[in-house]
Design brief:
The protein is of the alpha+beta class and about 475 residues long. It has 4 domains: about 80 residues, Arf GTPase activating protein (Annexin V, domain 1, Orthogonal Bundle); about 150 residues, PH-domain like (Roll), CATH 2.30.29.30; about 100 residues, PH-domain like, CATH 2.30.29; about 80 residues, no CATH class. Helices cover about 25% and strands about 30% of the residues. The strands form 5 sheets. It has a 7-stranded antiparallel beta sheet with strand order 7-6-5-4-10-9-8. Strands 14-13-12-11-17-16-15 form a 7-stranded antiparallel beta sheet, with helices on one face. A hairpin with a 4-residue loop joins β16 and β17. α1 packs parallel to α3. The chain is globular and about 75 Å long. The protein binds zinc ion. The site of zinc ion (ZN) has 9 residues, from α2.
Length: about 475
């Protein structure tokens, strides 16, 4: 009898839809929720086990099954459950995979079956309303202490803001939705729902580290008003709130991108809402002269930008280098030049860019392999025209790296290529220059004067993408001598 049930279950697992975990998509699930009628992986079964009021789980292979339970599974299954519980998932909502952190998978499962957010759209208001405010613990830039801060996300203003005091009129920082990214970093931040938010400030990536309070009130900062503290303080509340913040930020970016790229489909926009880093970890690096000793630094690979930090929780990177594609002269080698000295870690990597070589060393062979995989992923991918923006940034030059384009007599703070669907479809690509006005930009023998701060210069697309690609352009205050190389 038991054998028959097992055979029937194994047959059910062959049905389309049942071959991947109903919640995270992991292949070959061999657990099941016999109250929801879904086949799930071992890892998701552990999450279901913590919600006994909605889900009861059994192993397909190890547990005993009753005939009615098997019949229930046959009647339902993963496709049917998806149709029932995921009928109204907003496009911007993050759908976790098996490689995501526990928090994202857990909250996805609870949102689906316990809170039933995707069959009751009014329950999506905490992240779909276009406005959200609340208190998050934010790590202080200089002292590393976490303090409670009021955060306000407003789609109308296209910004996430935070305030140092409850009654402050002016926000401490305004982070534009356009340049915002959020990723869960529980291990790095040392909190189960630690969220890293990055944005651009003065042409540098600024990191802030946050988590939601669990109803615990600690000293050291203004206390949240009572109406904002949870009625039943519990770790679960903080976890839900933090994922709601994450999805609210994704919703805001989604709506921003819909306006910026009117023709684009949801499938084009969704991958741009948030980015997980390709790789993070420690490596050793040396400076531009390659004669100084190697130093251990924390590295983050964010798409094509490799940044390094002295401490993983630093507010700003000490330096960053853009990694282009093979066709534009970038290569990654699994070794250091033979004469290299001064590194303690044995597994070398050389990144060759058109301008110079970057020498790195990893502690273990598996770390070296993981970094090489991350670098090759971007080197092997052809560059998009707007990605030439990153090339405007100078590679790191020792530990004194400052935002690029700084020069006497003015300040150039941002270079960016924009596809013009977001500005004016009649233009090609424009080079956006913000900061001090009165700059002369020179490329391929052509000079162009940028008239005012914040001006968007409409420039000859082909010429400019060529000169950015080959790096043969220079920027200078119009009254002073030209300064080569950004
Ligand atoms: Zn799963």
């Amino acid at each position: 009898m038991a054998r028959e049930q097992r055979r029937a279950l194994l047959e059910l697992l062959q049905r389309p839809g049942n071959a991947q975990c109903a919640d995270c998509g992991a292949p070959d699930p061999d657990w099941a929720s016999y109250t929801l009628g879904v086949f799930i992986c071992l890892s998701c079964s552990g999450i279901h086990r913590n919600i006994p009021q909605v889900s009861k789980v059994k192993s397909v292979r190890l547990d005993t099954w009753e005939e009615p339970q098997v019949e229930f599974m046959a009647l339902h299954g993963n496709d049917a459950a998806r149709a029932a519980y995921e009928s109204q998932v907003p496009s911007f909502h993050y759908r976790p995979t098996f490689s995501d952190c526990h928090l994202l998978r857990e909250q996805w499962i609870r949102a689906k079956y316990e809170r039933q957010e995707f069959t009751n759209p009014e329950r999506q208001e905490p992240y779909s309303a276009g406005y959200r405010e609340g208190f998050l613990w934010k790590r202080g830039r200089d002292n590393g202490q976490f303090l409670s801060r009021k955060f306000v996300l407003t789609e109308r203003e296209g910004a996430l803001k935070y305030f140092n005091r409850n009654d402050a009129k002016e926000p401490k920082a305004i982070m534009k939705i356009e340049h915002l990214n959020a990723t869960f970093q529980p291990a790095k931040i040392g909190h189960p729902h630690g969220l890293q938010i990055t944005y651009l400030r003065d042409n540098s990536t600024r990191n802030i580290f946050t988590y939601h309070e669990d109803g615990k009130v600690t000293s050291g900062g203004p206390c949240p008003p009572s109406y904002l503290t949870p009625r039943e303080p519990s770790p679960q509340h903080g976890r839900k709130e933090m994922v709601h913040w994450f999805n609210a930020l994704r919703a805001a970016r989604f709506h921003y991108l819909q306006v910026a790229f009117p023709g684009a489909s949801d499938t084009d926009l969704v991958p741009k809402l948030t980015r997980n880093y390709l790789k993070e970890g420690y490596m050793e690096k040396t400076g531009p002269k390659q004669t100084e000793g190697f130093r251990k630094r924390w590295f983050t690979m964010d798409d094509r930008r490799l940044m390094y930090f002295k401490d993983p929780l630093d507010a700003f990177a000490r330096g960053e280098v853009f990694i282009g594609s093979r066709e534009s002269g970038y290569t990654v080698l699994d070794r250091l030049p033979p004469s290299t000295q001064g590194h303690h870690w044995p597994h070398g990597i050389t990144i060759v860019t058109p301008e110079r070589r970057f020498l790195l060393a990893c502690e273990t062979e598996s770390e070296q392999r993981a970094w090489l995989d991350a670098f090759r992923k971007v080197v092997d991918r052809p560059m998009l025209p707007q990605e030439y923006a990153g090339k405007g940034r100078r590679g790191w030059s020792g530990d004194s790296q400052r935002p690029c384009g700084r020069a006497k007599g003015g300040r150039l703070s941002l270079f960016q290529w924009k596809p013009t669907s977001s500005i004016n479809p009649n233009l090609g690509t424009v080079l956006e220059v913000r900061g001090g006005g009165g700059w002369t930009v020179e490329a391929c023998g052509r000079r162009e004067r940028l008239l005012a701060p914040g001006l968007m210069g409409a420039l000859d697309t082909a010429r400019w993408s060529l000169s950015l690609a080959t790096g043969t352009f220079s920027v200078a205050p119009h009254c002073g001598p030209a300064r080569p190389g950004l």
